[in-house]
Every structure is written in C-alpha cells, then in structure tokens.
Amino acid sequence: MERPIFKPIGSPIEELDTPALIVDLDRLERNVQTVHSFFEGRAAGIRPRVSVHGCPAVAHMQLAAPGAVGGVSVATLGQAEAFNGSGIADFSITANVVTGQKIARLCALARRAAVSVAVDDAANVADLSAAAAASDVELKVLVSIAVRPDRMGVDPGQPAVDLARAITDSPGLTFDGFKTHEGTLEVRSVAQLAEESRAWIRRVLQAREAAEAAGITVNTVSAGGTYNYEIAGAADGVTEVPAGSYALMDGRYAGQREGLEPAARVLTTVTSFPEDIKIITDGGNKAIGMDRGNPVADEFPEAAIALSAEHGNIALETPTRRQVNLGDKLWFTPWDMGVTANLYDYLNAARNGRLEAVWDLPARGRYR
C-alpha cells in the first residue's frame, strides 16, 4: 500500500514527494475531447478501456463525454468489481472467465451490473450457463474472433457460428455478438496500420455475417483501440471500439497519434550526479514500470534510460550544458501507462502546474 505525503490542494507540483504519478488535466481533457468527438453521431460508440488507468474519476469523465456507449471495458473481473464500487454498472470483460471461483464472482457482479464476458470455448460456455442458471442471473456473452495466431479467439466461419448457437441455446446466457483482441500493434506506417486494421476488422465482420445468415441476432461487434479508433469506428458493422490509452497516453504512442499527447507522467528527483554524462533519479522500475520499451526522460529525450528497482539512470551521449543539481525534478513519460498506473494508489491531478485533486486508483493490482 502506497503511503503518500499529501500536499494541500493548490500546491506547486514540484513540491510533491517523489516519485509521483501526475496527470495534467488540460491534456487529459483535450485527449478525451479529441477521441470522443470522433464518435459523436456515429453508429459506433467508444467503450473506454479503463483498465489502462484504473481510476474511477477518469472513467466517469470518459463516460460523460460524447460518443460513449454508456459502459466500460476492463481486462479482469477484479477491475470490474473495483469500478462497480464507484457507481459504474456496465462492463465488458475481455479476459476469459473460466475457474469456478471467478464464475461465481461474475454471477454475483451480474446482480449489480450489466456484464458481458468473452468466450472462445464451448466448455466455458457450459460452465457459465450452469452457474448463471443456478444463480438466477443473465450473462451477456461475446465470442472472441481470432485475428492473429498468437491471440485468443475462434475462426470467424463455422466455429464462430457454432459457438454463438451454443450460447443462444444455453440457459442464463444471452449471445450478444463478437469481439476481437488485437493486442499491442507496433507499426510506424499509417498505410500499414490501415491495411492490418481493416484485415482484422473484416474477420469479425465475417463472423457477424455468418451468424446473421444462420438466423442469429448480433447486437455488438467490438473491435479496435486507441491506435486505430478512426478506422474501426468508421467501419460499417462495428458497434463499439474498446479504446483506453487515449486518455493518459504514453511513450509507446509517441508520434503515432496526432492530436493526442502524454497527459500522465512520473515526476522524479535527481538523487545523484556522479558523472557529467550520468544522472540518477529516484524513479526506478517500482515507480515507472517496464514493459516492451523504456520510458523517455522528457528533459533529455535522446538519453539512454536504464531502470533498476529504485533508481532511474539517465546516460547522456555528451556532457549536458544544463545545470544539474541534487534535488532537481525530472519528468519521465512511461512506455506503457497501464503498467505504470498499476504501481500507484493515487493519481495527482494538476492544472497549470498546481495540484487540483488527488484521485484514488482502486483497480490497481486487481489482476484476478
């Protein structure tokens, strides 16, 4: 449990104890407005993937913005339970829920909220049906369509139709539609992004067409994310886009998403300056996190970053002309905000360089 040293509202953010996760409210609001305005008036809506930030205050901001479908997407059942405590009552859970213990919790949540869950196996459908019928609840179910060999899901042809039919015939379950889970996309070419995105979206739309040809009603087709929300949101037949990173953003999307900017960063303190080409801060892996890439030191964007558990090492190519002193504050933009936000119990919300609010992150660590 994080034990923060709170500062009064209105304090300069440089006075916060470090490492500190800080969101710039102006940037956050612009990011939300940019993405949500695209969906305003469209057939497809945006279902915010709130597991990226774990913050109910941000989630409610997203749900209040134009173009939202009225519910959120989460990675795990535990995250849904955490957000339900803040008054959110419509969830799409992307992880398969397969164990008896989790299915029992899922049914308990379904008494308090509308819940849809993804499946790609008939045995899982049978288990969900038995528990839902015994608990006298109704679960909405989406069939996951495979878009890449290493991703969950079934083929969009007959296997998808057969699984949809099994759900339709199962007590306690309502077949709701199809979804994809593309995962992290690492492309720098806009043309390649569009080509790959449309290929994936075609697969889930093929499943819809096959199911409807078999007389099965399809209400929901979920596809896309922050990296391709315009492509997925404009595709005829897609009903919702489960995007999440757009709100806080991170280094992974740097230069890839025009109009969106990093809203959340980690403020650190210089704790050592042993060489004129090396700076050490108090922001290590336990404060910034590590995924598939390194964070960016905002003041030294070309520097090589190496994180140990408690320290952030900034290696410069040449001696810096900037005066560096112990106690100086330096900013890091994390590579993956979902990893970073999961390390904190609180998010410091700032505007114009001053603390405006401190928001809880109750979904952090809820990986079950």
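(ticket continues) Second input and output from the same batch:
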Amino acid sequence: MLTPDSRLADFPSLHGRTYLNTAAESLPPLPVRDALLAYWEHKSLGMKGRDFHFAELEAARVSAAGLLAREPDEVAFCSCSSEAFNLLASALDLKNGDEVVVTDLEFPSGATPWLLAPGRPGVRLWQHREGVLDPADLRPLLNENTRLVQVSLVSFLTGHRLDWASTRDLVRSFAPQAVLSVDVTQAFGRVVLDCLDADCLIGSSYKWLLGIHGGCVVSVPRLQAGRLTTRAGGWLHLANAFDADRFTRAEPLQGAASFAVGMPNFPAIYALRTSMDYLARIGIENIAAHADPLVARVHEGLAALGIATMSPAQPGYSSGIVAFRHDRDAAIQAALLEENIHVMHQAGRLRIAVHGYNQATDIDRLLAVLGNFA
C-alpha cells in the first residue's frame, strides 16, 4: 500500500491511473475480494454457513476493537452511518427543551436525525469561520440543556480536522450531561484517532477503512452503555427476542450491542474484518506518516497556483482531504479525467483525498493539470 510495488500488488486497479477520491469511494485491496469469495462459499453451505458467518462477525468485532483501543463488547456494526445515527437518536429519546449541537461541516446523516426527533429538540449550529471550527464559538452553544454534541473528526466537505481536545474539554466543562458523539467516517483508517474517549464513535466502512458498502462501525464504551441503549425493535439486539414474554415487552441489550438490531450484513462484515486487519498490519501510524506529507504537498502546490483551499493547512492536524472551489471547476474535472486522474467534483467543489496507496507522483500529476488553470 505504501510503496509503488506493494500498492500495485494489492490494488491492481491503480495501474495507469491516479486515484484521489477515497473520501467518496475507496479501492479495496485484493484480500477483500478473497473475503467476499469466502462469504460466498460459506453462504453456499446454507444454514451451516451461519456458523462461519457469526464467527466472522466476532472476529470483525475484535479487529475493530483493536483499532479503537476498546473491548469487543464495546463495538457493533450497522448497515450504514445513517442507520447508526438514527438509532443513536432513539437512545437519547430527545424531548422539547433538550438541545443538540451540530456543526455546519457535518454530513447530512449526522445532522438531520435530530431535526426529525418526535420530541422536537432545539438544534444549535456551530459554524465554521473561514473553514475552521473555532472552539471559542462552541462555548456559547453549551448549557445544562445540551443533550448531544455531534461532530465529525474530519469534515467530508472541506477536510477540516477538529481540535478534539479543546472540543472535548469544553463539552465536559459546560455541558457535562451531554453525549459527545464523533463521526469518524472521514478519518478512521487514515489518521491516528485522538477522539477515542468520545461517548460514541460512528464510521462507515467503504471509505478510508477500505471495505465495501453496507457496513458501519459503532463503538460505545461500557461507561455509557446505560444511557446509549437504542429503543428500536428487532431481534438480534434483544435479550428476550424468543422468550415467552416477547409479545408484551422488548428488552434490548445495553450499549453498543443495542445498535445491531437485525441480521448482520455478512458480506460487508467479511470485507470489513479483512480490510481492518490489512490496515492494522500496515499500521495507521505508518499510513499517516506516508500520506500526511503528500497532503502538505497538495496545500503547497495549490497555494503556489493561487488557489485557496476551503480549509487551511493544519500542521500537526492533517487529514486526508483537501477541497477547493474554482470558477472553472467543470473544465478542471474534464482535464483531470482526460489524464485519468480521479477526484470528487460536486456543487462547484473539487475534493482531493490522499490515502496510503497514493504516491508523490500522483500529486505531481494533479498539480501539473491544475497548473494549466492558474
């Protein structure tokens, strides 16, 4: 993943192209293909295959726990982050008078469940300033009514990486009853997570974690299990799913286990367990050490071309994403595709994503094309 030879061995689809769009869709390594074939073989066994399926689920829980420095029973899997956030909303049971704080750099899945909560809580917006979320702007939003502070460690929109320590300390000091939840979708697998003391972590599987669609990691520490237990129907997460009283009451397991409400998406679990083990073998620290200088090179190159990024470079707080707007964005996208260079182009914004399988030559090719539009 980190050298020209190893990346082509594990990611043969990179041959002849520059892929800088992991923040939208990752390229899974070849071991993930093998994992999906293993799922097929096990599924072909019929009911007997479930023995393998659930063993793989437990192995995935162990793998995720290892990456998150938590225990396996503090980890569960949903089908996507939207499902996880809506289940979190059910656990909080927000009411009129309660308040939720979100940022204006959030993806919709983390920003909208609170708008639809039956209790109609108040939603307060932490707004960025020139691409940066200043903790000083968070302080006035916090009070004794704050029940949830929902943030992204890395913004999907701009690549801004949150000042986690300052955010955490403010919430703990001025809204001590609030749940502090972090969307790590655009960070998990790419940066060393410094938010492992959050009350809830949610991250999709098909971006920097190098898995496929249909998976999402959810982690709730044991200390928060009592108040972060979902209120959803289902069966896998219920302690009394097949007991005699199942038609008169539902007793969910507590904490992370309560987020696994039904039959797991086993193909995604097989893929995710394998991709997480792949990342663990390489080491997230090594990926960050390799890719962060490439991100810095993107920032430097754009600055030299007179192109302002949507979020400034953050020495020591690098993420994998750099985004910018340009009045010739469509023409730039066409020129990049002509050179087989892939970035995200959406709503007038170009977003560059740098992972461990990217090389300095990828950045040089990108900047060479952008130089034609300076």
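Agent notes: The first strand starts at residue 18 and ends at 19. The radius of gyration is 21 Å. Closing as not reproducible unless the customer responds.
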